């Protein structure tokens, strides 16, 4: 069995990554991790990254071999959705205690937990996750999983990605390696066809995959496996018989796409389902790859017919928002595929991009941004919270799209904000998703609350002085210094009704 350190070195030496190919041999061995800034948040660990990739496989029991906190902190870490099984939302952990660690009871407790899951739930597979504690004490989860699989007659898959191994992104790739080693190719389907594809790196956040699948169904294209969004174990086990693949998030699963191409000759491309043009282009490329693999060329004409129909419907719906959003300035504090796909989508309706984060973006992502924006100055690797606040409070953006971590920066700057990351409540993929994204942006920007919160508070207004009208930009209210009020005690003479 390949050791964890050897597996990590293999993942670091990724030939499908242009940035990695440009390094010398020594630099590739060091990987892509960067030293952490003291006092800064490190983000997720490798275990967290592995759980993100695998937990959306909905009919599998996910067993975390660790003290209780590891499972408690990682459970439901993405807003993925399931159209059927709900076992993935049940929390399983061996709940190791200090006594278990001291007495060396970890492996025995793990074997017992697998048996209890088998008897109570009878899942098609159990995924067992190693963590920092169990890796440090030397529990051999691979040996336990092998013995349990033989004893109980079900697939028991070891996920050897303890948090101490590295970053969340490394955990994504180690999870993909586990699928390659233990799952994909283990089941031969009896219904393989010329229109079967895989979609990799699609997490079905807020049900986004369900906006794309009907389009593929109309073209007669079957998704053999969507990894990991709304996936089933047997679908992934037979994913090696697909004819083509699309990678939605190459930052996470580029190694999975490349190795499936090498082993089973499944060509792939990186695309996006965000925005009208990108969705259409993704459908075209899927059809073209299938034709290259032997499908009837008639699918190309059907694809163009569907694209023309769906684009006409989407643009008609978007016209209702164009006038209110034309020229509005957007700041994107996200990364990965969204750093360019969402940029392209918003520019299609006439919005201006004043900045986009490329912290988690690949070299290919950054090249796409340069081609779209024609200006490197709008790209930033990382922006501190105080810089974000300064930019927003000075009115340089009309709305910020980001994750929940920076929402309070926008709210403090009295600027509209919309969640674009994994915690979002609305699906934004495909043609209908683009319309929903624009609708949510329009609602956020034109919400009357912003004009109200930017006004000076009644107790800041001097009697007899007319309050200034709020600026059209996102300027914050005047903040009086401590010296200005030195030796004075402001009084409030207005009644509650007048303040309201």
Structural class: alpha/beta
Distance between the termini: 70 Å
Helix content: 40-55%
- For the largest beta sheet, what order do the strands appear in spatially? 11-10-9-12-13
Number of domains: 3
Largest sheet: 5 strands, parallel
CATH topology of the largest domain: Rossmann fold
- Strand content is 5-15%
Beta-strand segment tally: 13
Query: What's the CATH H-level homologous superfamily of the largest domain?
Result: Nitrogenase molybdenum iron protein domain
Q: Round the Cα radius of gyration to an integer and report it.
A: 26 Å
Q: What is the CATH architecture descriptor of the largest domain?
A: 3-Layer(aba) Sandwich
Name the average pLDDT.
83
Low-confidence stretches: 35-41, 470-500
CATH class of the largest domain: Alpha Beta
- Specify the number of helices: 22
Overall 3D form: globular
Give a brief rundown of this model.
With 500 residues, the protein is an alpha/beta fold. It is built from 22 helices and 13 strands. The protein is 45% helix and 11% strand.
